[in-house]
Specification:
- InterPro entries: Imm7.
- It holds the Pfam family Imm7.
- It comes from Nonomuraea aridisoli.
- This is Immunity protein 7.
- The chain is an alpha+beta fold and 128 residues long.
- The protein has one domain: Alpha-Beta Plaits, CATH 3.30.70.
- It is built from 3 helices and 6 strands.
- A 6-stranded antiparallel beta sheet has the order 2-3-1-4-5-6, with helices on one face.
- A hairpin with a 2-residue loop joins strand 5 (100-105) and strand 6.
- Helix 1 packs antiparallel against helix 2 (64-80).
- The radius of gyration is 16 Å and the shape is elongated.
- The two termini are 17 Å apart.
- The mean pLDDT is 93.
Length: 128
């Protein structure tokens, strides 16, 4: 099982000089990437109060290529729109005993152990 839940606030830059035209181009590029992924799970890009947000979640049986695509998508959004920030939580029962968190700040992604849901046993599940 490969479970993931994440969100990104998409911003064209981390600075005060917003460029609506640049943000529109960035969103178009992100939408193209989403279209190539298909419709498995939740891939939702929408504007709220003048700001674009991306939400993603899913639970395929195995990490496989889809897991790499999701983590790659998360990182690519930060490359496309370097002012973006967000979190992607991943639980991969085949490789980890902890929930992993991919943190995006200023478009840069780093990976961390989650201190609130890890270790999986006994925090989320009984020993078995």
């Amino acid at each position: 099982m490969f479970e993931y839940h994440g969100w990104v606030t998409i911003r064209d830059t981390a600075g005060p000089e917003e460029d609506p035209a640049r943000l529109t181009r960035q969103i178009e590029e992100i939408q193209e990437r989403l279209a190539r992924l298909g419709d498995y799970g939740l891939l939702d890009l929408r504007w709220m109060n003048g700001t674009p947000f991306l939400h993603l979640a899913g639970n395929p049986n195995r990490r496989g290529a889809w897991g790499q695509e999701i983590i790659g998508l998360f990182a690519r959004v930060g490359e496309i729109a370097p002012g973006s920030f967000g979190l992607l939580y991943v639980l991969d029962d085949e490789s980890d005993e902890e929930v992993r968190v991919f943190r995006m700040a200023r478009g840069e992604v780093t990976e961390h152990a989650d201190p609130f849901l890890s270790p999986v046993v006994p925090t989320l599940e009984d020993p078995g």
